[in-house]
Amino acid sequence: MKKRWARRHIIEAIFKALMVISFALVAGSLALILWTILSKGLPAMNWAMITQTSSGGYYLGKTGGILNAILGSLYMAGGGTVLALILGLPIALYLETYLDNLAWGRYVRLALDVLWGIPSIVYGAFGFLVMLALGMRASMLGGIIVLTLLELPILTRAMDEIIRMMPDELEQAALALGSTRLEVALRVVTRQMLPGIVTAVLLAFGRGIGDAASVLFTAGYTDRIPTSLLQPVASLPLAVYFQLSMPYPEVQKRAYAAALILTLIVLAVSLGSRWLAGRFNKNVIR
Amino acid sequence: MSPPKPNHPGEGRENRPSLISRRRSDQLAGRLFFVFSVIPVALAILILGLLIYKSWPLLKTHFLWQLLFGQVWKPEDGLFGFWPFIAGTFWVTLAALVLAVPPSLLTAIYLSEYAGRTLRTFMKPLLDLLAAIPSVVYGVWGTIAIVPLIQNALIPFINRHFWNIPLISSQNPTGYGILAGAIVLAIMIVPFIIAVLYEILENVPKGLKEASLAVGTTKLQTVRWAILPGVLPGLVAGVVLGASRALGETMAVMMVVGNVIQVPHSILDAAYPLPALIANNYGEMMSIPLYDSALMTAALILMIFILMFNIASALVLQRVLGRKWV
After folding, report:
1. According to a count of CB atoms within 10 Å of the terminal CB, is the N or C end of chain A lower?
2. For chain B, what percent of residues have pLDDT higher than 90?
C-alpha cells in the first residue's frame, strides 16, 4: 500500500522542522556568544590581567591588570549573597512553617514579586538616594547593601518554591511526633531543602556578580584593592564597560579579556551549583 | 537523615530542654521570623514611596500630559519631554519580543511534546547558562558581533533595495540602533520565556493529550486544538512577564542602542530607552534644577509599566498554573 501524505502530515512536518530550527537557533546563539567572547578575549588575556591592579595610565593603554575589579566583585557579590541569605532564609521558613495568617503570606509573596521585577538600575538609584540622605560616599558597603536588596527577592523566591515542592507529610509527621514549629523548620525543612538552598545561593551570587547597573552609583570605582568597607571599590562588569568605552583599541581588547573572566566566573558558578546540588541530594527524603 | 537510634530509658540527650523552654524559643523565633517577613513589604513600599517623593517636584510644576508626550528634552531650559525615551523603550522592547516569541514558543512546544528525555535534560542547563551570562557580556557581544554585522551588511543592503520603505529605511549610518538592541535583548529574554512557557505546557494533564491522540490527530493538531485553547492566557502572561524583564534591562541595551535623543521612526534608528537615560546621567545631575527629579520620574514611569505588566501576568499565571483540570 502506498503511504499517503495527507495535508495535516505535511503541516506537521513543516512545523516540526520549524521547531527544530528554533531549538538550534537558541542553542546556537549560546554557542555563538561563548565562542565570540572566547576567541576575542583569549588573545588579550595574560597573567598581568588577573595578578596586578590597574596602574595610573591603565585605561590609556599602560600596563596593569584588573585584579582590583575581580576582587571587588567577589567581595561585593559574596557579602551581598551572605546578607541576602541571612535575611531570606527566615522569610522562606516563616512562609512555610509559621504562617497562620494566609492574607499576610499573600502580601509578602506579592512584595517579593514586585521587588523581583524592579530593574537593577532602579535599585542603584534608590541606593544612591538613601546613601545621599545618610551622608555616605560611594563605597563597598553601599555596593554590598544594594546587591543584598537585588538578590533578596531572587533568593527568597527560589527557596520558597523549593519548600513548597516538599511533601507536606514530612512536616506533619514531625509535628505529630511533638516537634515545635521551630524544630520542624530547622531540623526537617532546612535539611530537606539544602540542595535547593545551595542552588539558590549560587544563582543569586551569579546575578549579583554580573550586575553593573546597581553598583554604578553606589560602589564607585578605584584602581586599588579596598581594605575597608567604607572605601570605594571597582567591579568586574564596570571594568568591562569602562574599558570598552575607551577610544584605544588595546584597552578595548582588555575589555574582551575582562568579559571572558566574568563569563568564566559565572559559568563556573552555574555549573558548580549543579554539581553541588547533586552531591547534597543524598540528604533528601523523597 | 540519620538512621533511628535505639531509644532506651536513660539514653539520649542529657539535660533535655523542657517543654516550656522549647515552646518559648518556638514563639520567640516565630516573632523574629515575622519581623523578617516585614522586610520585603516595607522595602517595596519604601522604594515606590521614595520614587514618588523624589519625582513630586517635577510632577507638581509640569503637566503630566506634557511630560509624557512632550518631545523636547532640554533640562537646562526646564523642558522635560519624556516621549523620545518612552518611545525608544517601547520600540526596543517590542522589536525584541517580535524576535524572541516565535522561537521561544516553538522551542517550548518542541521540548514538551516532541523531544526525548536526553534533549530535555540537556536543555535545562543550556537555558540556565544563557540566563546566567551577565548583561554587560551580552553588551560586549553585541558590539563585537551584531553592530558590525548590521553596519557592514544589512544597512548597505537596505539602502540599495529598500531605501523607501518606512519602518526599515534609516539615515543612521552606524549599526548602533534599535535592531542591535532588540537582537541582544531577545537572546537575553528567550531562556526566561521558554522556561515559563515550558512550565505551563508541562502542567497540562497527560490524559488530555492522550485522549486527543487516541482519536487519530497528529501531534500538531493535538497541540493546536486540545492544548493551546486552555493555556493561551498563560502563554500570553509568560510573554508579558518576559516583556517586563526586557523593559528594565539597562547595560546590554545601553551599549548597543546608540543613545540619541530622538523619537525613532525606523528599526535601524538609534534610540535612547529610559534605563539608559538614568544610567548615563545620574552622576552629573546635581547642577541643573529639577534634573534629579526628572531622572527619578523616568525611574517611576519605568516602574509603573513594569508593575502593571508584572501584576497582570502574575494574576493570570496563578490561575493557569493553579487550575484544577477536570
Report:
1. N
2. 42
Name every chain A residue with its beta carbon within 8 A of the beta carbon of B22: 180, 182-183
Complex confidence, ipTM:
0.90
Q: Under 8 Å CB-to-CB from A233, ≥6 apart: which residues?
A: A68, A72, A75, A76, A139, A140, A143, A219, A220, A221, A222, A226
Residue B116 CB neighbour total at 10 angstroms: 8
pLDDT at position B47, please? 94
Q: Which of B33, B228, B309 to mutate to test the interface with A (most CBs of A within 10 A)?
A: B33
Burial B197-222, CB ≥16 within 10 A → b, else e: bbbbbebbeeeebeebeeeebbbbbb
C-beta separation of B89 from B178 below 8 A: no
- From chain A, the residues in CB contact with B250 under 8 A are 119-121, 212-213
- Domain coordinates of chain B in residue numbers? 20-61, 66-321
Q: From the list A12, A94, A108, which residue is nearest B219 (CB)?
A: A12
Mean pLDDT of B231-240: 90
Handedness of CA A41, A46, A47, A52 (dihedral sign): negative
Kindly report, residue by residue over B178-201, the tens digit of the pLDDT.
999 999 999 999 999 999 999 889
User: How far is the CA of B65 from the CAs of B49, B68, B71, B80, in angstroms?
Assistant: 22, 5, 11, 11
CATH topology of domain B66-321: MetI-like fold (1.10.3720)
Q: Confidence band (pLDDT; 50, 70, 90) for A101? A: low
Please say if the pLDDT value at position A58 is more than 80: no
CA distances from B9 to B3, B12, B14, B94, B149 (A): 19, 8, 11, 71, 79
State the helix-helix crossing angle for A102-117 and B291-321, rounded to 10 degrees. 130
Counting beta carbons within 10 angstroms of the beta carbon of residue B101, is it exposed (0 to 12), middle (13 to 18) or buried (19 or more)?
Answer: buried
Q: Across the interface, do B137 and A269 touch by the CB < 8 Å criterion?
A: no
By C-alpha distance, the chain A residue nearest B41 is A111
Distance from C-alpha of A236 to C-alpha of A140, rounded to nearest angstrom: 13
Confidence of residue B323 (pLDDT cuts 50, 70, 90): low
Domain range list for chain A = 7-44, 50-283
The candidate with the shortest Cα–Cα distance to A253, out of A32, A33, A45, is: A45
Q: Are A226 and A140 in contact (CB under 8 A)?
A: yes
Please give the residue that has the higher pLDDT: either B2 or A267. Answer: A267
Kindly report the average pLDDT of chain A as a whole number: 87
Contacts of B190 in chain A (CB under 8 A): 26, 29
* E strand or H helix that includes residue B5: none
Residue of chain B minimizing CA distance to A285: B1
User: Above 80 in pLDDT, residue B283?
Assistant: no
CATH class of A50-283: mainly alpha
Q: Measured between beta carbons, which residues in chain A are less than 8 angstroms from residue B244?
A: 117
What residue of A is the nearest CA neighbor of B25? A182
**Residue A260: C-alpha distances to residues A38, A88, B177, B224 (Å):** 6, 31, 25, 43
Facing residue for B33 by CB, picked from A90, A129, A271: A90
